[in-house]
Design brief:
Length: 412
């Protein structure tokens, strides 16, 4: 990798002189990586099919919430360290090509490898032999070695590495600076080059084999998903006993170090946790009982809450307000958000359903918080955004499984 910390402001980055190409560079995974690399002195080719998002970045704005990224984007643009391209033919033929497209799952929750193959096929005619190809997003176990052999069968000498992204949504810049990066390569040369790249932007590289790296990513997300399922199941058991689980959880964790990592209950969602858990289940030929149980608990929590509300209220005569439509707090990403599962289920039960979110800008149905509070008979805290912490809900009941809100009208 050619890192140039003394980059001249008079020499703009072009496709020909870029040090690194990030495919999908305008996405949630790509943007933090692009800006971290540029801050380390690299010229980066931001390659993405989404022309609209590229235009937003080029204008100096961020298309998604990514904390600590705005100043880095300003600096990268001022230093002319970025070039924006929107076609596979425009990737740079020197330096690593980092692909942030992972393995999706189909309607049966099985991995779809052809998406990765299609991306590789589109890039291959425009890559030079000897270049490093880095897979960055989650892939099904064995995919990295499969790509290595596939390229060999095509008569190409492309180095292949898998270096999984593991940052928390919205905090990628911070975590790239602070967290170790898992690095793997299908050859010693690929491993060395990938390690050098990630050591330039992170404090440490942990080197393993490609399949070990693939499992490390899946195990990380599946374990987190199972943790949420455990506390959500505890919540349901406590509620069935007529108890406040938050009081129990606080007692469990108070000055007791072995319980400090138990998460609070809530709607475990997002584009990675359930998908990666199911990829692991698919690899295990559906023998991953913990993973399947976790999905039933976490995905089923919404329906449990609604069943309970039907016993307490006549929903058919009520307007229900949903607070927060992003999949987690303080971000604007709605992908795989369980808030929309609430919305769809309530449409057949409630008189009317209103939604609000202080961050989401892509949903035309959203209303202001004040409007939702004024018109709702009952509200459900779907996403614990900080804005809701001190909101005045006008004495109306608010369902909060998170244990986030306090007050006489909070329904646990």
């Amino acid at each position: 990798m050619n890192v140039r910390p003394d980059l001249s402001a008079t020499e703009p980055t072009t496709v020909d002189n870029a040090d690194i190409t990030v495919v999908g560079g305008a996405g949630h995974v790509g943007i933090p990586l692009v800006l971290a690399l540029a801050a380390a002195g690299s010229r980066v080719n931001v390659n993405d099919l989404n022309k609209e998002t590229l235009a937003v970045l080029k204008s100096g704005r961020l298309p998604y919430i990514e904390y600590d990224a705005a100043d880095l984007l300003t600096q990268a643009l001022a230093g002319k360290r970025l070039v924006f391209t929107d076609h596979p033919s425009q990737i740079s033929r020197r330096g690593p090509v980092i692909v942030t497209i992972g393995t999706p799952v189909d309607e049966f929750l099985n991995p779809v490898r052809r998406v990765v193959q299609g991306c590789i096929d589109s890039l291959l005619p425009h890559m030079a032999d000897g270049q490093l190809l880095i897979l960055r997003s989650t892939v099904f176990p064995g995919t990295t070695d499969w790509v290595h052999h596939y390229l060999k069968e095509q008569g190409r000498d492309i180095r292949v590495a898998f270096c999984p992204e593991r940052v928390v949504q919205g905090y990628g810049i911070k975590e790239l600076r602070e967290m170790p990066q898992i690095v793997s390569g299908t050859t010693p040369e690929a491993e060395r080059e990938a390690r050098a790249l990630f050591e330039s932007i992170s404090p440490e590289a942990v080197v393993v084999s490609p399949m070990e790296a693939e499992f490390a990513k899946l195990f990380n997300n599946a374990y987190r998903y199972i943790e949420f399922a455990a506390t959500n199941e505890f919540y349901l058991i406590a509620r069935s006993a007529g108890l406040d689980y938050q009081r129990i959880l606080n007692a469990m964790k108070h000055n007791y170090p072995r319980a400090r990592n138990i998460p609070r209950p809530g709607y475990a969602a997002g584009p990675c946790l359930v998908k990666d858990t199911m990829q692991l289940a698919a690899y295990a030929r559906n023998q991953f009982g913990l993973g399947h149980a976790a999905m039933l608990i976490n995905e089923g929590l919404v329906l449990h809450v609604l069943d309970d509300l039907q016993k307490r209220y006549d929903l058919s005569a009520m307007t229900v307000g949903l607070l927060g439509m992003a999949f987690k707090a303080e971000v604007d990403d709605t992908r795989a958000s369980l808030s929309y599962k609430f919305k769809n289920a309530l449409r057949s039960q409630a008189r009317r359903v209103l939604t609000t979110d202080p961050f989401v800008t892509t949903d035309p149905d959203l209303r202001s918080l004040e409007d939702v509070i004024a018109q709702s008979d009952l509200m459900i805290l779907c996403t614990p955004h900080l804005r809701y912490k001190d909101a005045d809900f006008a004495g109306k009941p608010v369902v909060d499984v998170w244990g986030f809100l306090q007050g006489p009208n909070i329904v646990r």
